[in-house]
Amino acid sequence: MSSEDTPTTDKTAPTAGFGIDIGGSGIKGAPVDLTGGKFAAERLRIPTPSPSTPGAVADVVAEIVTSFGEASGTGPIGVTFPAVIQHGVARTAANVDQAWIDTDVDTLFSARLGRSVHVVNDADAAGVAEARFGAAKDTKGLVIVLTLGTGIGSAVLLDGQLMPNTELGHLEIDGHDAEHRAADSAREREDLTWEKWAHRLQTYFSTVEKLFWPDLFVVGGGVSKKSSKFLPLLDLRTPIVPAELLNDAGIIGAAILAAESPDTPTPPAV
Description:
About 30% of the residues lie in helices and about 25% in strands. By secondary structure, the protein is an alpha/beta fold. It has two domains: about 10-120 and about 255-260, ATPase, nucleotide binding domain (Nucleotidyltransferase, domain 5); about 135-245, ATPase, nucleotide binding domain (Nucleotidyltransferase, domain 5), CATH 3.30.420.40. Strands 1, 2, 3, 4, 5 and 8 form a six-stranded mixed β-sheet that branches. A five-stranded mixed β-sheet has the order 11-10-9-14-15. α1 (about 55-65) packs across α2. The two termini are about 20 Å apart.
């Protein structure tokens, strides 16, 4: 068998990565144990600069990576971003400066850091982490991860493979953008009881269920810590469970996707 015919083994798979999660209020990063799906060191959080322009955010990202020194590794870095990301380019901008729209984020961060960077949508990253190491681990079929926060982020996975850039929070339901009524921010803004909010969630999840017939819903976002207050109030055909990785999911998922991206270099065989 020639060297070209030699099958790839787990020896070539990276065991360590680095992830960064960019949000409207904070930017967080940490080295990641890719075999265990957990942080390899305590994460660092720095407030998102205001205004959150591309250059200012790139400086914070570089500060976080540099602060970890050798622990940041030498491989590709995964970065989540609150936007639709097509081939490394931001097509939208949620809770960050509008100057990001049509910015080649991959190229910007790669140039700033001097190493390969793979940028992904924040909900997609969280979904991959939950599918690999969290609430959807080993689940076959269609899994939909929905993060309930300022808006509603979504990640759709089929047999563990991500279908990127779904925007299920923007479904129009009863004449409204779904996230304007069903996101956790709507519950807080309107001071809704858990019961009243659950009624809105019932309408939202039932609509998604009818459109996709998923095998599992996973609910993420900070409010998932209080899932016992609203998930039991829902009546769905599809099993629905809270996320397990919580605020760690974005960093972990970004590191996974960067390590496995065909656009990033493969480590040499040992």
